[in-house]
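#struct-help
A.M.: can someone run this one for me? Single chain, 286 residues.
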Amino acid sequence: MDQLSIGKVYNYASEENMKILPLWKQSISAIEIMGVKEELFSEEYSHYIVIHDALNIRFPESRDELNRRFCAQLGASVVRYIRKQGNVHYVRGLMAENGASIYSILPYTSFDLIENAKFPKNSMEERKIKAFEEIIPLLNGEKILDVGCGLGTLTIKIAAMKPDISVYGVDLQESLMKQCRFNAEIEGVGNIKFVAGSAYELPFEDAYFDVITCFFMLHHLDDVPKALKEIKRVLKPTGEVFVVEPIDHFHDIQRNPDDWKKLFIDAGYAVDVRKKHKLSYIKGFL
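D.P.: on it. Structure tokens below:
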């Protein structure tokens, strides 16, 4: 690379876990500025355009816009500025791997606001936000588990909104859990723990949680009944399970609310289901 590096990225992103790139939009990275005396970040601006090393992965053709944006000669991320600590700056939404070089940091200005900009919209993200806002107020109890927490965006939000509750997040990759812990630390959320583990073999004792959530996760699994039985094992007899699943996005099997209802009943739950915004909302209890 002929460009002069002005900084380095520190996070827990890797070639393996960056394949779930949309989840990284809410994750936090540290940028260490090196060899530059001028202040590149200012509290006058909430967002910045950061030019960085390209990702060492390729996405499917259906997501080619990600390849063009982040996997070509260079990557360009629009980030939200969080705060400064010495010569290290914390930002949210940097699509760069740990150790990547930074080449330019530009303020996102009024010149960049284009009201009628045209681009393919991701309706799934909008529906996720609506689902989160609807479900979070319903979560009560001493211990809450978020199964398939990804990069912990929802898990941290639950813990921040309910500081007197112990919140746990679980997902397969330890590297993801390290990033979750980093996100929570920078956001100052302490009532939360992240543990690597499988939905088929949760690393918790029987009847441990008052509430368990699964958001947009179960449709990724090969054996949903096995996962539901394992979730039931760690749920208290008086506990509740809240699940949200897309109807129009699936892998091998498309499931509607009635299909989810049958799966839960077969796994030994009583269940309420409803449909809204092309999503199945499922509430299970024992």
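A.M.: thanks! The mean pLDDT is 93.
D.P.: also worth noting: The CA atoms of residues 65 and 119 lie 10 Å apart.
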